[in-house]
Amino acid sequence: MQATIRRDTRAWRAQVWISFGLAGLLCASGLVWLPGDGLDRAFIVMGYAFSLSSAFALAKAIRDGEAGSRDTPGWRLVVWGGFATALAMTAWGLWKMGINPTWKAYLAVSWLYLISSAFTLAKTLRDQLECERAESSSTDRDGARPTGVMQ
Description:
Strand content: under 5%
Shape: flat
Number of domains: 1
Radius of gyration: 20 Å
Order of helices and strands: HHHH
Helix content: over 70%
Number of helices: 4
Largest sheet: none
């Protein structure tokens, strides 16, 4: 019996990448024209980078846990703690910045968009990897491509 493997469509993958790129562009443009001190800009750049990397780490840890992988309690603390710290510190930095509330709102919304799109991108990339692995193992098993592969 051949396995049916359901892939994300090209349109979905394009939408995910475009959304992630747009979120990054919005964050970058907000930082380029950010009024205020260079120190404020540097803090927010670090906050965005920390938030983004911790979002990808958390997405991976959650997905690995669903797949049955057992992480140590220390690793779960690092992943969840890092993500919570990144969000809290970046939000605190935005709150304390001495800039117009409209700028703060723009930076906060673009930052949340970046984090949301990072989780979606991580899921899409992991789904693609799992489909490729399933296709490879199915092909290896019976020498034929699986049916129902959606592109």
